[in-house]
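Please check this:
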Amino acid sequence: MTWDARKEIVLNILHMKYAVEIAKTGSISKAAEALFIAQPNLSRCIKELENELGIPIFERSFKGMSLTPEGEEFIRYASKALQQIEAIERKYRDPVPCNQTFSISVPRASYIADAFAQFSRQLTNAPAEVYYMETNSSRAISNILNEDYHLGIIRYASIYDRYFKEMLEKKGFHYELVAEFKYVLIMSRNCRIAGKEDITLRDLDHLIEITHGDPYVPSLPITMVRKEELAENVKRRIFLFERGGQFDLLVANPETYMWVSPLPQNIIDRYDLLQRKCVDNGRKYKDVLIYRQGYRLSTLDKQFIDELCISKRKWLS
């Protein structure tokens, strides 16, 4: 019988540990010594395991114990299973308190960063691990599905609302609106158009746009997203993949500007920037909180969401 044959098998965890140790040492006698078990008893346990599985795990010879092809496959599965069992034992039997964990992927937005900063002040002396990643919507979704992140905030143009809701429901996400807004322009106070009251798209023609380099929507062609999100009339564009450098660049080069969600006044003042509306800009964007359906929000999750609501009302209302 092969390892993947259709047969109900009840495995003895100790026998699995014995087999893994023999595979590691290549010797019954060495494994028996490491496991503090008599060699005849160890041999009997391995025979019982092979009979239960219906496969030969080891080939016996005067040189020692070597794995059969079926045995190699079984040991791979057994090693992974034992690692999971050890993790469960550590989690529920270790008297040391488990760390609190908080993890979220977000768009690059100052009001969200401000909420996170305020949230960080609420961390107590209890052990905690906190992960905060600024990234695009595709990566935020992937982090929850594949990287054990608990929360995400995704940003998309309102024209994609139906697409995103259908996609999130299909992937098993709970979602709720955090904020809806129009992008504004930020620029140096020394920018050539800084003194204009009504800024139009034509006013931006000879300036350099700074934009984040990964504004891509999952499952939509990149060419379509570029056409929707990146204006074709812009002749010079700088792509950035982090948020901090954008402000330094705007200050250092008065020929640059950037589209952003509305910034808190303290950020505007700190970098000596200007924030302006564009009369030609009618597109709305949404920031949406996502997490897996059935996931129960932790205390840390709720504390961050509370701070997010405060920051949103303070800066975007």
